[in-house]
Amino acid sequence: MTIESNSTKPPSPESSPDDDLQPDDFDGASAGENHLTSETLATQRTLAAISSLQSPQNTAALQQARSFSNSRKPQLTIKPRALLVTVVAIAMTCLGVALNNWIIGVVGTLLTLLLSLMILLPWIQYVINEWFSEQDKIIFIALMGLIVAFVGGLKFTGVWERLLLWGKRVNWDASGTLAEWFGALGQILIAIIAVYVAWRQYVISKDLTIQQNLLTVQQNIITQQQTIDSYFQGVSDLVLDEEGLLEDWPQERAIAEGRTAAIFSSVDGSGKAKILRFLSRSKLLTPLKRDRRLGRAILNGIGGYAEDRLEGVRVIDLGVMLAAADLANTDLRWTDLSEANLVRANLSGCDLVKANLSRTILYDADLSGSDFNGVRLFYGSLEAASPRSRTEPPDYETGQHTGAVVENADFSNVQRMSDANRYYCCAWGGEKTRGTVPGGCEGIPNKLGR
């Protein structure tokens, strides 16, 4: 069996190469920029703000609000010559009435009617488009067709003549005067008009409510991004000193973890993904090799920090912060989620390219449709790798107890899963997981036993 990147020789417990979490290919950063600087933090915050305002879930709302603000009443423009002709036509009509001249009156009336309709045509079109939607126009035409078809049926089937003969035999004096019939008809028309006015008020109120909701969505986007920016600045102030070195005092770590746990509960999935990418690329989620005396992170000699998977210390330990979290359709490329508790988390449709999920608890998690290219699920060799244990420490040389817990996870339609990861998921996922792994699990033993 061909072994992918996950089955290559793992780094020693003291240090791991920079290839584990290199800068993203799409970010255009150099391979040596693994340390925190003020310029890097400012750039990350600016990119986060731009991506938040241009996220797919908000683009449609912003376009609708923009189109609503741009809609306005059209301006009626007319040439002076046409206006002069219209005035002359009105004068002809008035002259024909004054002189009681039939020819002048008819010509003036027809010209006045035609020119007035031509002038008012743009305004009439605007009123029709503003008051009636496309569906209303279709329904109106259909109703007119129905009425015409009904009248035509009465006319050409002979029913109309029979109705007229029946009407002549009716004693209308016994049924009331003609005025009473027209009065009843007028009341019916008034009721219809009242219903129409009420319906229009409802439509206008609904449109205003929709626009208010769109404005609320935009305000929430801005507020959330401001909250995330404040969090970035606060965490940066905690972990950086005047010399730009990563500090590791217990109280700072506790405050940073508390801030992270609090902000995760107040942002949506996109906001959580931004925070995770910031923390991961800033090496705040990675176990780093520490100076036992000073507590500072030790440089690896090539522009980054040395990792220590076995005994290293994380500035922020995610723990159970992301348990049952909704991270669907978010960008989690190159993030270090190792040892995080993602039980029942929704990771469907996520971009997990080069993400580190070793020793991550993915029990009952939904990873359907996600991009699994280059994902690390374990260290060491494929044959010896096994999921994490509550009692046994991990062995990063052989791979024992370094793998993710994938029992009952859903891998339906996962994209670009390597053969090594497919083998691991089939071997240690259990029957439910084996039924969702792309490519099937034929010939792969069920090492989990259930």
Short structural summary:
The chain has 450 residues and is mainly alpha-helical. The protein has helices at 38-53, 56-70, 80-99, 102-131, 134-156, 159-169, 178-239, 250-264, 269-281, 419-428, 430-434. Helix 1 runs antiparallel to helix 7.
Instruction: Say what the CATH topology of the largest domain is.
Output: Pectate Lyase C-like
CATH architecture grouping of the largest domain: 3 Solenoid
State Rg. Answer: 37 Å
Could you tell me how far the N terminus lies from the C terminus, measured between alpha carbons in angstroms? 24 Å
Overall SS class: mainly alpha
CATH superfamily of the largest domain: E3 ubiquitin-protein ligase SopA
- Count the beta strands: 0
Number of helices: 11
* Topology pattern, helix = H, strand = E: HHHHHHHHHHH
Instruction: Give the overall form.
Output: elongated
Question: Can you walk me through this structure?
Answer:
The chain has 450 residues and is mainly α. The chain has 2 domains: 5-36 and 240-434, E3 ubiquitin-protein ligase SopA (Pectate Lyase C-like, 3 Solenoid); 71-176, no CATH class. The chain is 49% helix and 0% strand. It has helices spanning 38-53, 56-70, 80-99, 102-131, 134-156, 159-169, 178-239, 250-264, 269-281, 419-428, 430-434. α3 (80-99) crosses α4 (102-131) and α7 (178-239) packs parallel to α9 (269-281). The longest helix has 62 residues, at 178-239. It is elongated. The relative contact order is 0.10.
